[in-house]
Specification:
Helix content: 10-25%
Number of strands: 8
Number of helices: 2
Distance between the termini: 54 Å
Radius of gyration: 17 Å
Oligomer: single chain
Strand order of the largest sheet: 1-2-3-4
Structural class: alpha+beta
Shape: globular
Amino acid sequence: MRQLQELRHEFVEFIPDTLESGVLYISIPYATTTHLCACGCRNEVVNPLAPHGWQMTFDGRSVSLSPSVGNWSFDCESHYWIRRGRVDWAGAMERDRIDAGRARRRMDIDRDLSGTTDETPKGLKAGWAQRMGAFFRRK
């Protein structure tokens, strides 16, 4: 399998039934992006665009996705960033860091949906924004 170094973007209304390797399909009406895994395994990667999902930036020439793409449920467990159409490969992550990141994301979603401002549970490292929010709430 050959790792990709870049993805070209294609804006579509509907994601095609057959995906082409090296293409990041972006559906604005359905707020989602899809591509074949950049490691070459040909698994389909779906990244929903949402406040607590992925965010896409289009600068008029290229596309970036944030946060990184971590395919932890695939055998390849590939991990990479898509920045200005380039695939920037990231190192492997330990399972406890993956689980902590997922837990933090679920907590953020639950907090926003419920309207609460609970602190980060013990064992999870609070992100920069959470620490700053907690600091100012104490004042």
